[in-house]
Amino acid sequence: MSWLSSFSPPFADALKNAISAADRTSPPVAAFDADNTLWSKDIGEAFLRWLIAGRILKNVNHDSDVYGDYERRVEKDRTSAYAWAVSTMEGLRLTDVRLWSAQLAYAWPNYRPLMRTLVRELKNEGFDVWIVSASNAWTVQEAAKYVGIEPDRVLGITCDVKDGTVTGNVQIPITCNKGKVEAIQKYIGRRPTLAFGDSLGDLEMLEYAAQPMVVLDCALPNTPLSNLASQRHWPVQKL
Predict the structure, then answer these.
(1) Looking at residues 70-99, what average pLDDT do you find?
(2) Which of 21, 134, 186, 203 is the most buried (most CB within 10 A)?
(3) Is residue 10 helix, strand or coil?
(4) Could you give all domains of the chain from N- to C-terminal order, each with its CATH number?
(5) d(CA 120, CA 28)
(6) 8 A C-beta contact, residue 159 and residue 170
(7) Cα angle vertex 107, ends 152, 122, to 5°?
(8) Cα 40 from chain centroid?
(9) Which residue blocks in the chain are alpha helix, DSSP H?
(10) Residues 225 and 200: beta-carbon distance below 8 Å
(11) In sequence order, what are the residues at sequence separation of 6 or more whose Cβ sits closer than 8 angstroms to the Cβ of residue 5?
(12) Pairing state between β 165-170 and 159-162
């Protein structure tokens, strides 16, 4: 496993041990958060800003501070805020949302080569690799292709679609905090051997996995999750 040398020693050791100890009666699962984990920045929020800037959303007042409203919602309750952000796409054609998402994902400059390597090598080791994201699933599905993960291995926030048009009815579970675990249980049906995340929005998923793995931005040396990782002796990789 020469590829492990690219990672910090504690992170590499935890990966090696988890790979060696994985139950092979069925493919072991590796679950990744997306934003600020597989890539830097938040592609879901970038997509929302683009929709707002283009005055594309049909059921918001574009003369008001729509993104500011979103940020205030996040401060109060991130799960409901992330769901609201996706529900603002009500009335858009899903084919358009997918096309715009593909364009953004192609132009997105923030993919992390080291995480792409990690995904590739885990798949080579027989892992079933998934993304569990609190961003809208349609945009993350397009971005997943650029880190080597199949779109059908993406769990994210979506709304029901009727006659090809996005509705405002957000599907449950909402993939944030405990909703990430609920989605894993519902759609994957196996406890992850490895889980990777960068924020407290990933905490329950990290706790649920056999081996939690924390990914941090070098520009943010101290975060609530980094402090918790230090207390719990979880391996950390800074990028």
Answers:
(1) 97
(2) 134
(3) helix
(4) 2-238 (3.40.50.1000)
(5) 14
(6) yes
(7) 40
(8) 11
(9) 9-21, 43-53, 66-76, 78-87, 94-107, 113-124, 137-144, 178-183, 203-208, 224-232
(10) yes
(11) 12
(12) antiparallel
Q: Give per-residue pLDDT as tens, 13-67.
A: 999 999 999 988 899 999 999 999 999 999 999 999 999 999 999 999 999 999 9
Contacts 24+ apart (CB under 8 A), 174-177: 174/79, 174/82, 174/83, 174/134, 175/132, 175/133, 175/134, 176/78, 176/79, 176/82, 176/134, 176/201, 177/78, 177/79, 177/201, 177/203, 177/204
Q: Could you tell me which of 134, 135, 122, 129 has the C-alpha nearest to residue 149? A: 129
* Rounded Cα distance, 208 and 226, in Å: 18
Q: Which amino acid is at 209?
A: A
Q: How many CA atoms lie within 13 A of 114 on its CB side?
A: 16
> How is residue 160 written in tokens?
């029901």
Cα dihedral value 238, 70, 98, 165, nearest 10: 150
Rounded Cα distance, 202 and 207, in Å? 9
Helix (H, G, I), strand (E, B) or coil at 237: strand
For residue 1, name the pLDDT band (cuts at 50, 70, 90).
Answer: confident
Which of 137, 146, 133 lies closest to 107 in space, CA to CA? 146
Angle between the 94-107 and 137-144 helix axes, to the nearest 10 degrees? 40
Judge contact between 73 and 79, C-beta under 8 A.
no
Strands 154-157 and 128-136: parallel
For residue 219, what pLDDT band results from cuts at 50, 70 and 90? confident
